[in-house]
Amino acid sequence: MNIAEEYQQKLVSAAEAAAAVKSGDWVDYGWCIATPQAIDEALAARITEVEDVNFRGGILVRVPEIFKVPEPEKHFAWNSWHMSGIERHAVNSGLAYYAPIRYSELPRYYRENVGPIDVAYFQVAPMDEHGFFNFGPCASHMSAMCERAQKIYVEVNTNMPRCLGGTENGIHISKVTGIVEGQNPPIAEMGGGGAATEVDEAVAKLIVEQIPNGACLQLGIGGMPNAVGSLIARSDLKDLGVHTEMYVDAFVDIAKAGKITGANKSHNRFRQVYAFGAGTQKMYDYMDNNPELMVAPVDYTNDVRVISQLDNFISINNAVNLDLFGQVNAESAGVKPISGAGGQLDFVLGAYLSKGGKSFICCSSTFKDKQGNLQSRILPTLANGSIVTDTRANIHYLVTEYGCVNLKGLSTWQKAEAIISVAHPQFRDELIAQADKMHIWRHSNKRG
Q1: Pair 309, 350: CB distance under 8 Å
Q2: What share of the chain in percent tops pLDDT 70?
Q3: Given this model, what pLDDT does residue 222 score?
Q4: Which long-range contacts (CB under 8 A, 24 or more apart) does 4-9 make?
Q5: How far apart are CA 347 and CA 369, in angstroms?
Q6: pLDDT of residue 194
Q7: pLDDT band at 230 (very low <50, low <70, confident <90, very high)
C-alpha cells in the first residue's frame, strides 16, 4: 500500500477520533499551539459521558472547548507541564494542576516513567511526499510522547508552519491511528505581553550594554525579554546566534534587522535553534520552511552541556520576585501558581558554564497590587509558598530599572547590599532594616 492509499484509509471524522476516549484514560493534548481544535470540539460534545479522564498538555494559547462544559472538573483533570494564563485560571477553579519538572527532562520522563498513553491528539502540518506529518514549531517532547501513545490521532492544519530541524520533528503515517482533516483555522497567536513600558526599556538598555558581538541569545517569554529583543534589533550588534527554548517574535525582528548570522556558533552554525515557538502570524510565516531555523527536542535545546559549549551565551529571563538572599521566584505568587519551572534554571546554569556567558534575571523593581498600592518585587524573604526557581547559589546578573548587578559568589552581606542597590528607593530603608535583623547587613555597608 502506498502512503496516499494509507492516508485515505486512515481518514476519520473528528467525532470518530474523539470517540476513542474512555473513562479513566490518560490523554495527551499536544503542546502549546499544536493543541487540537476540531477534535477538541468533538470531544467537548461527549466529555460528560466519561469520568476520571486525565489530560496532559501545556502553555495553552486558547481555552479548550472541553474546559467550557458544565462542571468539567467532574469529568476530567488537566495536568500542565507549563502554565499559561488560561491554565492559571483553571487551577483556581479546581480543573487544572501543575506537574513540576524541569522542562528539559520531559522526553526522558515520557520514555522511562510515563505509563502507556491511551490516546494522543495534536495538530500537525499536512503530510509530505515521504509520509511524514511535521509537528510545526512544537518538537519539544512530542516524539517521546508519541512513543508511549497507544492511539495517535493527528489533526491536519494547512496553516501550521512546516518547521525544519534535525531529529524528532515529525511523525510518520505508519505510526498514526487516524487522520482528521480539520477546518484549517488560523494558528493561535501569543503576543509579547503588550508594548514595552519605560521600565522595560530601561532594563533592556542595561542588558544590551552587556552583550558582545557574536553572542548567542536565549530569550524568555514576556514583555521585558521582548523589549530586550526590540532594542537589540535597533542596536549596532552583529553576528548574533540563537539557541533558545522558546522562539518568540523578537527573534524575527532581530533577524530581519540583519543582526543574526550564527557565524560564531560552535555547533549548529548559521542556524537558529529552538524547542517550540508561539507568537504572531508574522513569526509563523517566518518559520515556515525556513532552513535558517532548526526545531529540536527540548532535551537537546535545554541541555546544560549543549548550552555551555556555545561561547558568549546570553540568557535573559523574567522573575516574579526575589529575596535578599538571591533566591529567584519565577513561578508563583505565594501558593498561587503563575508559571512553571520551564527551562530557566537550565539556561542560568548553562550560560555561566559558557566561555564569556552571562545569565540575566530581569524584573521591574515594583508592581501595583489590586488596590493600586506600590509593592516591591525585592523582598526580605520570599513569601510562604513561593517557589524557588533559581537558588541563591545560581543567580548571576540581576537587572531592574535601577541598575544591573553581578551577584555571583558574593557573601550574604555583599549580596544583600547589591540587591538593595537596584530596589526601588522607596523600599530600600525597610529592606536594609530587615537585612540587619537577618544578620546579612554589615556596619560598613553603604546605605541606599
Answers
A1: no
A2: 99
A3: 75
A4: 6/131, 6/173, 6/174, 7/127, 7/173, 7/179
A5: 30
A6: 66
A7: confident
Long-range Cβ contacts of 60-66 (<8 Å, 24+ apart): 60/32, 60/35, 60/84, 60/86, 60/87, 61/32, 61/33, 61/35, 61/86, 61/188, 61/189, 61/190, 61/278, 62/35, 62/37, 62/86, 62/188, 64/29, 64/35, 64/40, 65/40, 65/41, 66/40
CATH assignment at residue 101: 3.40.1080.10
Active site residues: 245
Asked if residues 403 and 397 have their Cβ atoms less than 8 Å apart, the reply is: no
> What are the start-end ranges of the E strands in 94-165?
96-98, 119-124, 132-134, 152-156
Strand 76-80 versus strand 53-57 pairing type: parallel
Residues 249, 185: Cα–Cα separation, whole Å: 20
The parent domain of residue 308 ranges over 198-437
Q: How far apart are CA 19 and CA 39, in angstroms?
A: 10
CATH of the domain at 342: 3.40.1080.20
Kindly state whether residue 348 falls inside one of the protein's structural domains: yes
pTM of this prediction? Answer: 0.95
Q: Does residue 139 share a domain with residue 263?
A: no
Distance CA 310, CA 217 (A): 10
Strands (E), 312-428: 313-318, 321-323, 328-329, 332-333, 336-337, 358-362, 366-368, 374-376, 378-379, 397-400, 403-406
Which of 251, 209, 206, 210 is closest to 233 using CA atoms?
A: 251
Which single residue is written with the C-alpha cell 520570599? 382
Using only C-alpha atoms, the chain has a radius of gyration, in whole angstroms, of 23
Question: Do residues 316 and 427 share a domain?
Answer: yes
Q: State the cell numbers at 43.
A: 470531544
- In which region does residue 385 sit, left (phi positive, over 0), alpha (psi from -120 to 50) or beta (all else)? left
User: CB of 140 within 8 A of CB of 275?
Assistant: yes
The three grid cell numbers given for residue 137, joined into one nine-digit string: 514549531
Q: What is the mean pLDDT of residues 337-354?
A: 94
